[in-house]
Amino acid sequence: MTPKKVLILNFIIISSLIIFYITKGLWENNTSYIYPLDDTYIHLSIAKHLCFDHIWGITQYEFSSTSSSPLYTILLAFCMFIGGENDYYPLVLNIIFSFLCVYVFYLYFKSYNNVFLYFFASLIMLFFTPLHVQSISGMEHTLHIFGVLSIIYLYKNAFLSSFFAKNSIYLYAALFIFSLARYENMFLILSLSFVTLLSGNLRKTLLIGMIGFLPIIIFGLYSQHEGGFFFPNSLIAKSNTMQIQENYLQHIVAIFEKANALLQANKQMRFLGYLLLISLVRKGEYYNTTSFISVNYIHLAVFFTFILHILFAGFGWLYRYESYLLCIACIAISPTIFRALHLPKLVQYLRQKSYFDFTKNVFTLIFFFFFAKSSIYRLYDSHKDLQYASQNIYQQQFQMGHFLQKYYDNRYIIANDIGAIAYYSHIHLIDLVGLGSNDVLKAKLQQTNYPLEKAEIAIIYDEWFRHLMPASAKKVAEWKISNNVICGSDKVAFYAIKPENGAKLKMNLIAFQAYLPKGVECVYF
Question: Do residues 69 and 46 touch, judged by C-beta distance below 8 A?
Answer without folding.
Answer: no
